[in-house]
Amino acid sequence: MSISMFSMFFNTLWKRVYSEMLLWKHFWVDIATQLSVLVSCCSASFSEIFSYTACRQLSQMFLAIIFFHSSEYVLAITIHGKSNVTLRSLLISQNYLLAIVFSLLEYFLEILIFPWLKEYWWISNLGLTMVLIGEIIRKMAIITAGQSFTHLIKVNHEEHHKLITHGVYRFVRHPGYLGFFIWSVGTQIMLCNPISTIAFVVVVWHFFAKRIPYEEYFLRRFFGSQYEEYAHQVPSGVPFVK
């Protein structure tokens, strides 16, 4: 092989190797760019999750849930005695847990995709106010009713079970239900969860729309015309439920 042919072969080989190196360089640059974008997105996502807004709203949510259920249990023990109270007085059911999980999933998805949606503080504070008002109404109902208040509907009339028409019961027949309705919907408004707010309104209302007539069937059996007159004068407390 002559020197000129060797030189041509070497130049051709070098050009091919050089072009391959350029291709690999562009390839790794593209990968590095994509990784940097992904890391920045993840950093932004984590910063949204651990932002002041998320920490405040979620902490308010968890504190509201813990206080509501623990106070229900403590009040039940105080009124009826520990031997007459079960863990059902915590009012935590499978459907309730599913609703809470759904609301939290909505919150995390929205704060990652639409973080601005959670920054409407007047809406969040309105929800917090509803949580406090609902909690106060419900606890006033429990304390006022005393031993007549139970978490399970009584189907048999007991001696200590009396018709309560004073206190908050002067204004609505079921202040405990009204309080829970306001409280539960308020938790979702507090989180600025539009989907869960609508879902909680529908589900909780439907639950009480079925429970109230069932409970009042026994109340009419227990108290007769006395309850009929009371029900005629005082609303149920849950919107659109007679």
Please tag this protein with its features.
242 residues; mainly alpha; Four Helix Bundle (Hemerythrin (Met), subunit A); 2 domains; 7 helices; 0% strand
Would you kindly provide a brief summary of this structure?
It contains 7 helices and no strands.
Number of domains: 2
| Helix-strand sequence | HHHHHHH
Please identify, by name, the CATH architecture of the largest domain. Answer: Up-down Bundle
Structural class: mainly alpha
Overall 3D shape:
elongated
Number of strands: 0
**Percent of residues in helical segments?**
over 70%
**Separation of the first and last Cα atoms:** 106 Å
| Biggest beta sheet summary | none
Number of discrete helical segments: 7
Transmembrane segments: 57-75, 96-114, 120-137, 180-208
Pfam families: ICMT (PF04140)
GO molecular function: protein C-terminal S-isoprenylcysteine carboxyl O-methyltransferase activity
Membrane topology: Multi-pass membrane protein
Describe this protein's structure:
The structure is a single chain. The protein is an all-alpha fold and 242 residues long. Helix 6 runs antiparallel to helix 7. It has seven helices and no strands. It folds into two domains: 49 residues; 182 residues, Four Helix Bundle (Hemerythrin (Met), subunit A).
